[in-house]
Amino acid sequence: MIKMIALYKQPEDKEKFDEHYYNVHSPITKKIPGLKKMEVTKIVGTPMGKESEYYLLCEMYYESQEAFKEAMKTDEARASGKDVMKFAGDLVTMMIGEEVNEKVH
Fewer CB near the last or first residue (10 Å), C or N of the chain? Predict the structure, then answer.
């Protein structure tokens, strides 16, 4: 499983960010062909009890590297990328990862 990870820093206006993210950006992203699953995590703090410099983490899962590459060529992926740069270009870091399943005892 391949995933694209979007990690967002704390926005100045959280209410405005949430409004756009959940009502505009997420619906665009969910239309990307080949997207198997999308998980959004709101960062609530650090293990030391402090506020994190990060606000939100989104993981978007694809079946394989090939499926991901094909998905990124679509109009829907281009629309999602264009939108994220418009509303959060200065806040977001994008990464691609390959899932490695480690067993926990």
Answer: C
Q: What is the spatial distance between Cα 98 and Cα 100, in angstroms, rounded to a whole number? A: 6
- Can you give the pTM of this predicted structure? 0.91
The two three-digit tokens of residue 90, written as one number: 């200065």
Whether 59 and 38 have beta carbons less than 8 Å apart is answered as: yes
pLDDT at 26: 97
Euclidean distance between CA atoms 88 and 38, whole angstroms: 18
Cα gap 47→57, rounded to integer Å: 17
Instruction: Please write the tens of the pLDDT for every residue from 29-65.
Output: 999 999 999 999 999 999 998 989 999 999 999 999 9
Helix/strand/coil (H/E/C) assignment for every residue in 44-85: CCCCCCCCCCEEEEEEEEECCHHHHHHHHCCHHHHHHHHHHH
Distance separating alpha carbons of residues 19 and 23, to the nearest angstrom: 6
H or E element that contains 11: none
